[in-house]
Write a structure and sequence with these properties.
The protein is mainly beta and about 140 residues long. It folds into two domains: about 40 residues, no CATH class; about 90 residues, Umud Fragment, subunit A (Ribbon), CATH 2.10.109. The protein has one helix and ten strands. The strands form two sheets. It has a seven-stranded antiparallel beta sheet with strand order 4-5-10-6-7-8-9, with no helix packed on it. A three-stranded antiparallel beta sheet has the order 1-2-3.
Length: about 140
Amino acid sequence: MIISKVLTDNTILLHFSDNAPCSFPARPVNDDIETEIHFSQFWVPNSKDSYSVIATGDSMVEARIFEGDMLVIDCSIEPKNGSIVAASVNGDLTIKRLLVSEEGFPILKAENPNYSSLAISETDDFRVLGVITSVHRRL
């Protein structure tokens, strides 16, 4: 992988040469095949309405969200039943899977069996802030 150019808005276009299997190589790398992607558009396609937070805790580990991961949140996406969202509940920020009860009330489900789901009631100050669109972590 080589950086091909930096654009005027400081985004980076990356050049990729073929796929990289994480097993024993079945054939040599083909340097003749190149694919160019717009890195920012790939990871943050709607940068105008997106922001990021760093995940803390372990309530979403079964969704492969771990402490220290950077989460990209898109505020323009309409949350659906099953979306992983950033939500404000009574002034506290949380990242959970959004479910809808049979009665139509939101439920915030942790993706770790050690944590209970949170059923939102009419008395809660609840807002979905955005939908998680990507997770990034350092290796």
